[in-house]
Amino acid sequence: MSVQEYFSLVLTDYTLRTITLGTAILGIVCGMLGSFAVLRKQSLLGDAISHAALPGIVIAFLITGAKTSNTLLIGALISGLIGTFWISGIIKKTHLKSDTALGLILSLFFGFGMLLLTFVQKMPDAQQAGLDKYLFGQAATLVESDVWLMAVVMGVSLVVLIIFWKEFKVLHFDPDYSKSLGLNTYVLDVLMTTLIVMAIVIGLQTVGVVLMSAMLLAPAAAARQWTNNLGIMVFLASLFGALSGIFGTAISATSNNLPTGPVIVLIAAAIVVISFLFSPGRGILFREIRHWKNRNDLQLHKTLYFMFEIAKTHNDISHPHKIKILNNFQGYTRNSLKNLEDRAYITVDGPMWSLTQKGYDKAMNLYNQQDNTHD
Amino acid sequence: MKDKIAIKVDDLTVAYNFKPVLWDVDLSIPEGVLMAIVGPNGAGKSTLIKAMLDIVKPIAGTIEIFGKPYKKQYKEVAYVPQKGSVDWDFPTTALDVVLMGTYGSLGWIKRPGKTEKKEALEALEKVGMLEFRSRQISQLSGGQQQRVFLARALVQKASIYIMDEPFQGVDATTEKAIINILKELRKSGKTVVVVHHDLQTVPEYFDWVTFLNVKKIATGSVKDIFNDDNLTKTYGINYKVSLLQ
Question: Residue A51's closest CA among A262, A211, A241, A268?
Fold first, then answer.
């Protein structure tokens, strides 16, 4: 099956449609909430929460014996939340820095989860088979009820973001100031963290514990490159998340043996790389071009300024001077003379050059700007 | 004229990790003064104003804004944090930051509308930043960022303005612009409290001063208490006002 065939099948085939819809919605939720995690510099929190969810999944199985995803995800939610509260507790009550606290909880919970998982897998009956799919996810196991759950989380997140949009905006930009405005920053923080934990939990079945944080961060990091507006950033992050989900599913469905979760994450990573290279405002490519252009301009301006110093000794600023005298000046080349002429800063007539009014004004302004900085 | 108390601090003690940052501070700030809080590094100046703003929770003591706790009076107070305390790479514009000043008086869900935008533009004009209103905030210079923060506080139309080192790392033009606005605020009866570092400018800029070094050393009018004795008590070495000039 080719990718094109896949897309014609998506509309008719029930299973494909369910999975695609699920990964797309997951991408939207993660992009939306991930934007705030990235802006709050809480990128690592997502990683810690998703790893902290693993023991919850296994314990939920041990207690109920159920393998329905909803039961297991409740376990994941509870242990994810416990992990989150422990992290903030450690940061508040000890001298440990937040990265240490995150790393500590991540490895503690994940280690405990792996221990339980190994234990469960050695149990005699075959009931437990498939629990390990939560490590790297398995989108093929998504069923309609899972997608409904994702849609509900998406709806709730959207409503909360719309209601508290300006509060979240000022809280993520300037937390102290938002407190001084009388906002209840504690409630807002808990609300946002709970949403993020929920987004992570609904993604565990598809993308898995290990890679889940990438779903949260990659679309948001990519979106930041394209815009300086928070609303547009959140929208773009959702779009990138959805695209990663859809194309990741398409690629993994059309080639055998490619796992969906990792492919989705790779697509998201590709979007990040493209954004970091080619976005017009912040991308590396355009920045280098601007850099190079600025350096060229600087050279030209230095030459122009040198000419201005010569020209201003005459009453007539356009009094012609020999090109030869420029040879003493370091930055001068034939090319820069040509460039200055192109910009109408000077006119060249045989072996002589003269400054134009435009060139004079430009050089004058350069001088003023320099003067201002010393003020 | 100076009989009404704007901010009253009683027995305030604040500690981070068992080390006291502020010790038993009593302070009454009369309404309508332009006051500097001065003291060496680590004297607890920022902590004192954060406690006034209910951002830092004290171990003991109370703070009253016009006789009531902060929670009931937050609309009366506008805060200008240190500009280094936020990440200026946040995806937003100068105008948008100033609009944040209106968020406290707007209710849930409500967005800033025409009135708020007009007020924000007026505040930007007042600090001389109108032409930069659509500029991404990371593209502003340090002085311009500080002016945006001041404009954000101005749209709050508060009675009390509390500022954390507004002159740090700004150019001379910005410093002049800011101090002119602060003096204007005082003229219109507002109370302005400023954490300040440059002792030399205290007599020129302020009419009221508090010396702080974990404990309160002295508070009063600059004319009466800005002297060698208090400087020495606060900074620990033999300070002289005459040496500042």
Answer: A211
